[in-house]
Specification:
alpha/beta, Dihydrofolate Reductase, subunit A, nine-stranded mixed sheet, 12 strands, binds NADP nicotinamide-adenine-dinucleotide phosphate
Amino acid sequence: MILIFAVDNNWNIGFGGKMLADLPEDLKRFREITEGNIVIMGRKTLEAIPGQNPLPNRINILVTRKDKFDNKGFHIINDLDNLLPLLKEINPDNEMEVFVTGGETIVRQLMPYCTKAYITKIDKSFEETDTCIPNLDLDSNWKILNESEVYSQGDLNYKYVDYIRV
Ligand SMILES: NC(=O)c1ccc[n+]([C@@H]2O[C@H](COP(=O)([O-])OP(=O)(O)OC[C@H]3O[C@@H](n4cnc5c(N)ncnc54)[C@H](OP(=O)(O)O)[C@@H]3O)[C@@H](O)[C@H]2O)c1
């Protein structure tokens, strides 16, 4: 599985249910990388998506304990123990990549299965945050594979850093 996240300098990812910054170019890159593949998200991350619809052109897996979720085309997982059997069923030959797209609770549970990470690093320490993911720079099991140039949008600078588990 592959992590794909935008983080600040302290690896924070959100506040009040929203992402920390609105970076259209990063969202475009997210779409390009994940299209044609499988995305896994927690119910709170879905709530941040306008309309709460599945992401188009992707197989969407939603993790929630709510048994009455209106499925709209999601594969619903009520128990993460059912995730690997579902992936085997919908992706038997591993032709599609499987992206863990949020949020914190889902990452922390699926981290052991993740072997790659696409991280958008925003060069700012946001004051108001309530969700974060593990800092891969402090984890010797992970190393940087590629690092982009620095891009700017308004007063925010950011870059794309790809990691691999060693
Ligand atoms: N910066 C980024 O790239 C990025 C990306 C994604 C999300 N985010 C941000 O992250 C924040 C949301 O993260 P979060 O950690 O609060 O929420 P989350 O992980 O998106 O969703 C949590 C929910 O997932 C369900 N869940 C979690 N573990 C489960 C399990 N083992 N079995 C069944 N259901 C399970 C539960 O849903 P129920 O309550 O329905 O049972 C739980 O309340 C938001 O601010 C969002 O904007 C940022």
